[in-house]
Amino acid sequence: MLTKFAIACALGGLCTLQAQAQASSADAIAQYRAMLADGNPAELFEAKGEDLWKQKRGPKNASLERCDLGKGPGVVKGAFVELPRYFADTGRVQDLESRLLSCMETLQGLDAKKIAATPFGRDEQANLEGLVAWISAESRGLKFNLPQQHEQEKRMYEVGKRLFFFRGGPYDFACASCHGEDGKRIRLQDLPNLTKNPGDGVGFAAWPAYRVSSGELWGMQRRLNDCFRQQRFPYPGFASEVTVALATYMGVNSKGAVSVAPSLKR
Amino acid sequence: MADPMRIRAQAQNGNAVVRVLMSHEMETGQRKDAAGKTIPAWHITEVTAQLNGKTVLTAQWGPAISKNPFLQFTVKGAKAGDKITISWVDNRGDKRTDEATVA
After folding, report:
1. How far apart are CA A208 and CA A128, in angstroms?
2. pLDDT in tens, B87-103
3. Is residue B74 part of a domain?
4. What are residue A85's DSSP bridge partners?
5. CATH no. for residue A225?
6. Which residues on chain B are in Cβ contact (under 8 Å) with A215?
7. How confident is the model at residue A13, as a pLDDT?
């Protein structure tokens, strides 16, 4: 394989050209992101989320300030980079979104099932976007360090790994088809290898993010939903075990990666 | 009532660089919803910037401006402590004014 490639290189000088084209398109995207990063509209969602966290809402007229995101009630800073994790009160491993649903239900008296069934970007789902933006922003610059002590957390990692490599659907696709090795691309964009730590602010460490093309803020739940769509799989339920398991797998693999969320995507 | 803007104003070599992030749908009037009905245009039509109450910039905006627009400009002669006021009006008559101090 290597010799063949070397011959092709020597013959046509093609390889350098190809490498250049690839590098420049990736650079151009990076440049584009850098230009827009200064005015990242995710800030607007962060501001909204901070207000929502402190605002008294719902049938119980309570704020989320007593919500335990894993580091004690009301502690937001550093919570995001340790999620998903096991919560004793619900007896489940939860990611940020599913934990927020629990808090909204127990503290504010809102109907978590109804929120989970709401399409993305509407009603309480729109509020979740703000909350997710702000809470992740409070951990910006910190390193991912998901706990893996509890039996359930280890189980979720293993389940997530299985799901990641599970091939199915009309295209016989798995997450690993695109994100299982280095140097893969979709069209001109580099795809992170999510079976290991892909680096600071890449892959799991880049979400939630503001998507310029649709003008929406996407949390990990919505991002995973889109992965399922691209694989032509049925959509997973919002905050379902499937999504939490995949997030645990990617999160644990990203150990040590610096979170830049909420970031900016094309 | 619209969501607040995020305004940052920084003094730089005798000028001030102002960066504004506005929260707005900026609907063009060209798109259709799931039922095939045209979504009516809804966008900012006018932006005004003031330095200590004196207008330093006005702009007429239309449907070509992106959702949640970002605006950056330099104000000559503005120094730390000066007050920058940004206002916008949209085609529904909704308006929003926010302030920031040059740092």
Report:
1. 11
2. 999 999 999 999 999 99
3. yes
4. A94
5. 1.10.760.10
6. 66-68
7. 46
